[in-house]
Specification:
Blueprint lengths: L2 E9 L8 H4 L2 E9 L5 E10 L2 H7 L9 E2 L3 E9 L11 E4 L20 H9 L9 E3 L2 E5 L9 E5 L3 E3 L6 H21 L7 E5 L3 H13 L3 E5 L3 H9 L4 E3 L1 H7 L3 E6 L4 H10 E9 L13 H6 L3 E4 L7 H13 L9 E4 L5 H10 L4 E5 L1
Parallel strand pairs: 4-8, 11-12, 11-14, 12-13, 14-15, 15-16, 17-18
Antiparallel strand pairs: 1-2, 1-4, 2-7, 3-5, 3-9, 3-18, 5-6, 6-10, 7-8
Helix pairs in contact: 4-5, 4-10
The chain binds zinc ion (2 copies).
């Protein structure tokens, strides 16, 4: 297999102190990339964006092995195919998705409801789906992030980690389709199965929450309610089509409820807020990822007495191959204005600063282009 020298953003240790602009846990280094092996594809990355799941690895709330080449929300161009890849062509544009679906395990046969078991295992180990890695730095192994490692000029990924997109999709839009949109939009469409009669509440207006909001608004349900502690985000949500917007405290005081509640903050307090919002016979979809061990308090009698449902939803209960083209088409028709999710761009060398910006809550998605 050929070896390429690439520049990439490597996280050297988890749990560094903020601000990361000072502790600099990520360095942009020359890394050796081998492959593709038989079921893999070499992708020239066009654009990648920073997601909260990148930040969660950096700050240690989602522990992963290091050193690790970060980045999982990315889009690029197929450059080289493994010997067993017939589904893609060189020059084709693709979106990277953060959980490969082997297509064969019991979990993969649930229509997206459950995450692929082998894919989850190799994601945790920091390898590609076949259990191997293709990255080294001065001879030392560098782990893959969620089968992607998109903060680099090139990535080698399993063919089940990518989905083809059209020539007309800008690289930045392609990048956000792979995680924020699949997760937030999938929570609305696949897990909550929102219909026109529903009142929908979105708790937590980060990238995933805003993607959920845009998707919900596009469905034209009875009402869309936005909930966030940050009042600026509430104003933005109203501008983007939310009918009502409240802080968690206001929502509680007013006794607001909804048929479908999407928890997209990934914080135990947000889980409690979302739980209180579930109406009679309503459902709550929890798509955020709080730190392991974080606990929430809920009143179980309400679940019974009000016949409520709580739905766990990883990656928007999505089947990327089925769902990305659907979101792509909604964007094309102007029904899903994903440009709004993109707050700005950054240079790869400034990735620590960009992580600080995301942590501050002042931005949704920041894009690096290669
Ligand atoms: Zn993500
Ligand atoms: Zn599977």
């Amino acid at each position: 297999m050929a070896t390429k020298q690439i520049r990439g953003a490597v996280l050297n240790q988890i749990g560094a102190a903020a601000p990361f602009a000072e502790s600099k846990p990520i360095t942009v280094d020359t890394v050796e990339l081998t492959g593709p092996a038989e079921n893999e594809v070499l992708v020239k990355i066009e654009a990648a964006s920073i997601c909260h799941s990148d930040l969660s690895v950096v700050n240690g709330s989602r522990p992963r092995p290091t050193p690790m080449l970060l980045g999982h929300e990315a889009a690029g161009i197929v450059t080289e195919l493994g010997s067993n890849v017939t589904e893609f062509k060189p020059g084709q544009r693709v979106v990277l998705t953060f959980l490969p679906r082997c297509g064969e395990c019991k979990e993969c046969l649930t229509d997206g409801k459950l995450p692929c078991a082998p894919g989850s295992k190799t994601n945790e180990a920091g390898t590609l789906l076949d259990g191997t890695g293709h990255l080294t730095r001065d001879g030392e192994e560098v782990k893959h992030h969620l089968g992607c490692s998109g903060f680099a000029e090139y990535a080698v990924v399993d063919k089940r980690s990518i989905v083809a997109i059209g020539e007309d999709v800008p690289p930045a839009i392609g990048a956000v389709l792979g995680c924020a949109v699949l997760t937030g939009g999938g929570a609305v469409l696949n897990a909550a199965q929102v219909t026109g009669k529903d009142t929908v509440a979105i708790v937590g207006l980060g990238g995933v929450g805003m993607a959920a909001l845009l998707t919900a608004v596009g469905l034209e349900p009875a009402k869309v309610i936005a909930i966030d502690a940050n009042e600026q985000k509430l104003d933005l949500a109203k501008e983007w089509g939310a009918h009502e917007a409240y802080t968690p405290q206001q929502a509680e005081e007013l006794g607001i409820t909804a048929d479908a509640v999407i928890e997209a903050a990934g914080h135990p307090k947000a889980f409690e807020t979302a739980f209180k919002l579930i109406g009679f016979g309503g459902r709550m979809v929890t798509v955020g990822l709080p730190a392991p061990g974080a606990m929430s308090e809920v009143e179980p009698v309400k679940i019974t007495g009000r016949a409520q449902t709580i739905i766990g939803c990883y990656l928007g209960s999505a089947v990327p191959k089925r769902d990305i083209p659907q979101f792509e088409q909604l964007w094309r028709e102007g029904k899903l204005p994903l440009e709004r999710l993109i707050s700005g761009s950054f240079e790869l060398d400034n990735i620590n600063e960009a992580m600080d910006a995301l942590a501050s809550g002042s931005v949704l998605r920041q894009i690096v282009e290669f």
